[in-house]
Design a protein that fits this description.
The chain is of the alpha+beta class. It contains nine helices and 14 strands. A five-stranded antiparallel beta sheet has the order 4-3-7-6-5. The chain has a five-stranded mixed beta sheet with strand order 9-11-12-14-13. It has a two-stranded antiparallel sheet with strand order 1-2. It is rod-shaped and about 165 Å long. Residues about 75-125 have low confidence and may be disordered.
Length: about 500
């Protein structure tokens, strides 16, 4: 069964930004809508006023001819009045955004040899119509629909003229006693272009404001989270062997209950570890005294029954007592190897070749009894350590190697430095340790083959001592098929 991948945890910074982003986006959207309507309405009003002035100008140039007919006349250039162009075009033409001619039926009014009305933009198409009350057209585009009059004799409407949207204004006026309706219209291109520019400016401004607010929010969140980052660093700097309470003075009030709970947990773990260490130490000490007396009594009993029928049983009892005494000594060594049991002042510079020589001399008789060739290959190396602990580490490694090496085999102890690290190494000719068991053999009381005389604590003690010296235990393959135990330490500076 495939183990599901753990979900990625969200950071507090990411959560805060996520909570802020949606309201900010909604505010920006609302602000854009408000700004759009606030600015667009005056723009449209200005265009409408311009268009109404154009209608007024057209109405002002409606004259009654001598024959009684009404016509629209524009003043002749040059010297055009009311802001007319000095060189008007002979005819208004289409100048839309795509520069294409108007669709069929979309005819611009003719102003032959006359100036166009004021407020006319060359990129717009201008339409007009002057009609009577009965709907008949006097001048202009006859199919231009008038806007309904609303107030002040004016009316506005949006219309569709031959498929093109236009804005139209109608003005009710009277010329020569006759009621007329003047309608002026223009296409929406210029209006839409101005509104588009305004929307672009508003959008850019609001986007810059949003980015600025997000940047300020990010800065504020980062500053606000500094106490949490310091708390994380304090927790990370805690040594598992020397736990101590976290300071609560610089911690924000919202986080202080969490820190208090962590301190309670840390103290509970520390007290539990100390209790375990004290129990192992006391238990080992309490076992050693009666075991020593029991062993002495069995030796006396063995001498008294030498050659007797109980000698085999007494020998078996002696073997069991020896293993029990060895286990008690190992438990004591394990308890004393705990990193929390040592101060920085306990560490002194130690030469590893001297340590190797002392251990080889101590276990030489043991190797001769087992018919194992014990040798050493030492290079200069020095570490900061506790002498008796490193002595115990190397004794466990060599004893373990002798126990698992068949008669006639070899055990080699090495020391030296490589890549800035000092090392102790023990290699044997035994069966080796398969890769799938190299993690399990580090566990306490685990036996991987051998003659069953070990306590199963040797490598656990080695790893604890290595951890006390900021080192690590490596289980490697030997050059001749056996096992190679290597402990690397930071070299003494």
């Amino acid at each position: 069964m495939k183990t599901p991948e753990p979900r990625r945890a969200h950071s507090i910074r990411g959560r805060l930004l996520g909570y802020l982003l949606l309201p900010l986006l909604l505010l920006v959207a609302a602000g854009f809508w408000i700004d759009h309507h606030t600015l667009v309405m005056p723009v449209y009003a200005a265009f409408d006023r311009s268009l109404s002035r154009t209608a007024t100008e057209i109405a002002a140039h409606i004259e009654q001819q001598p024959d009684g007919q009404l016509k629209v006349r524009w003043p002749e250039p040059p010297g055009a009045s009311r802001g007319f162009g000095r060189h008007p075009p002979p005819r208004l033409t289409w100048h839309g955004p795509s520069h294409r001619p108007p669709s069929p039926g979309f005819a611009a009014p003719s102003f032959a040899h006359h100036a166009p009305p004021p407020h006319f933009h060359p990129h717009e198409t201008f339409l007009f119509r002057v009609s009577r009350a009965d709907g008949s057209t006097i001048a202009g585009n006859a199919d231009l629909v008038a806007a309904p009059i609303q107030h002040n004799n004016l009316g506005y409407r949006n219309a569709d003229y031959h498929g093109t949207p236009v804005r139209a204004v109608s003005l009710r006026t009277t010329v020569a006693g006759e009621a007329l309706l003047v309608t002026a219209a223009e296409t929406m291109h210029w209006r839409d272009r101005v509104v588009h520019r305004l929307d672009t400016i508003i959008g850019l401004g609001d986007s810059l404001q949003l980015l600025l607010v997000l940047a300020i929010s990010m800065l504020g969140i980062t500053v606000a989270l500094r106490p949490l980052r310091r708390l994380r660093e304090q927790i990370a700097s805690q040594s598992p062997e020397k736990l101590k309470p976290l300071p609560t003075a610089p911690i924000p009030g919202e986080v202080r209950p969490l820190v208090d709970s962590l301190n309670t947990l840390l103290m509970t773990v520390r007290d539990s570890a100390q209790s375990q260490q004290h129990f192992l130490t006391n238990a080992a000490h309490q076992l050693r005294t009666p075991l020593t007396g029991l062993k002495a009594q069995l030796e006396v009993l063995a001498r008294e029954n030498a050659g007797g029928p109980q000698q085999a049983r007494i020998a078996a009892l002696q073997g069991g007592i020896d293993r029990l005494a060895h286990t008690a000594n190992q438990l004591l060594a394990l308890a004393r190897a705990e990193p929390s049991a040592h101060r920085a002042s306990d560490f002194t510079p130690l030469a590893l070749p001297e340590l190797v020589g002392a251990v080889v001399s101590t276990l030489l008789d043991r190797s001769l009894v087992a018919d194992v060739d014990l040798g050493a290959d030492c290079q200069p190396a020095e570490v900061e350590g506790i002498h008796w602990l490193l002595h115990e580490l190397l004794v466990n490694l060599v004893d373990n190697a002798i126990r698992h090496t068949p008669p006639g085999g070899q055990v080699t102890v090495r020391c030296g430095t490589t890549e800035g690290l000092a090392y102790l190494e023990v290699e044997d000719d035994g069966p080796g340790i398969p890769p799938d068991l190299r993690q399990r053999v580090r566990e306490r009381f685990y036996h991987a083959g051998g003659n069953g005389q070990g306590s199963g604590l040797g490598l656990s003690i080695v790893e604890e001592i290595a951890r006390t010296h900021r080192g690590r235990l490596l289980i490697l393959d030997g050059s001749t098929g056996g096992a190679r135990m290597r402990v690397e330490f930071p070299a003494a500076g």
